[in-house]
Amino acid sequence: MAGRDISEDYLDGYDRILSEVGATGRRLTRDELESRRVLGERAAKAGHGLRAVVRQHLAMTRAACPDLPRASFGRVLSALDQVVDALAEGHERAQLLALRHEEAARREFIDDLLYGRSDPGTLAERAECFGLLLSHTHAVAVAAGPEAYDDAHPVTQSVERALFGRFGNRRILYVTKDGRLVCIAPADQDEVLLNFAKQAHAVTDGGRVAIGRPQPGTGGVAHSYEEALNTLDLAQRMNLDDRYCEPRTCSSSRF
């Protein structure tokens, strides 16, 4: 990615900027800075790392220096500083946009998965990108605490560190949904859901955790998730205490 050859298009207009700045000492105009941001954005979308783009501009700057008067050298360095800042800003802008698109796609997939929407074949293909094989049987654990949790919440991150620190990549999907913590794991990995239950129970200050029964197929995750939610709802209405049940000792809908 970052090491492949970069088109000289990303240097478009830079030689003219160097020449004019070296002669006059002026700062880059607003349009010139925006053009560098756009080029930095294009480079990021094309898969070029910022370091490679900056290296390309440094090479052109060095090539131009022998033809510049000594007094102009400081002006050129000042222009280079502005150009690099603008390139970095554009590069970061593209990366942020890509992350937002990825997060939107992830959220859409989670909704489709937990609510059983979308074509089963398409859903199974998308699930593989997130480490799930929906041809297998899965179970879903849901934790609810005294407050709503999102991906950036310290509680969410604490459970994530504990869960993946112990189990690594075992085709586990850990997300937040409607203010709750949700863990999806293959049904033959009871220890994952049990660990999730223990961690979530502890860091949510004794919050409730429910685990749905293992269910097969593309719709299995939605069925298990719905069962876990129903169990949580029942526990709240019955005012049950804040204990949780281990998967292997609980019946049908386990709490």
From TrEMBL:
Signal peptide: none annotated. Pfam families: GGDEF_2 (PF17853). This is CdaR GGDEF-like domain-containing protein. It comes from Streptomyces hundungensis. Residues 116-233 form the CdaR GGDEF-like domain. InterPro entries: CdaR-like_regulators, CdaR_GGDEF.
